[in-house]
Amino acid sequence: VFFVEGQTEQIFVNRLIKEILGTQQINIMQKQFRGGVNIPKQEIVRNSSFSRNPKYEVLIFDCGADNRVKSEIIENITNLRSRGYEMIIGLRDLYPIPIDELEKLEKGLRFLPNKLRSELPHFDIIIAVHEIEAWFLGETNHYKKIDKRLTGHFIREKLGFDPYTMNAEDREHPAKDLDNIYRLVGKSYTKRYGQTQRVVNKLDINHMRNNVRYDMESLNKLIKVIEACKKDKK
What we know:
globular, 19% strand, alpha/beta, 234 residues, 6 strands
């Protein structure tokens, strides 16, 4: 089960899972939490895909905000574990928290209250530095799928940085960088569902698994979690 900050993370995790585990033996349910505080909280099913002979079942919850990822896990982990889910993973951005507070944030988010301590081996939190879009920014094969003009030289000449040679985690606002890059060729990057889906579908997941992951520890960790499921089921 993945508890993610928003729809961008949900769309990407869904694609990554399908690429690593395949689509033949997997049930995936994408849900969204609505309400809470003054209105009763609901789970809305946003999307689902089912297999005839599932070997895996994955839930991906869009929590709607970075600060709700941990609280939703705390609220739901006991029930999900009792239903047989093996791993509960939280995924959120570091932004707007500064990089020098990453370690402190990770430590705080990984803490579980005493009554849930037995679930520690089945729980983890992954923090994308600074935003999940750093992973997209670092996957340079997709730029030419968007427009053949988007070479490193062209981008550097226009924007003063080269995504082909830098570490994307060094950029403070990778989502803004992606938007600026796409705008060079008359396109844009926004958080709209359809547009995010189109960008995620253009990403070269093999390149991310074989190369990009080793430059970004958070991406590497997420890929390892999914790959471990495949090994466990063999």
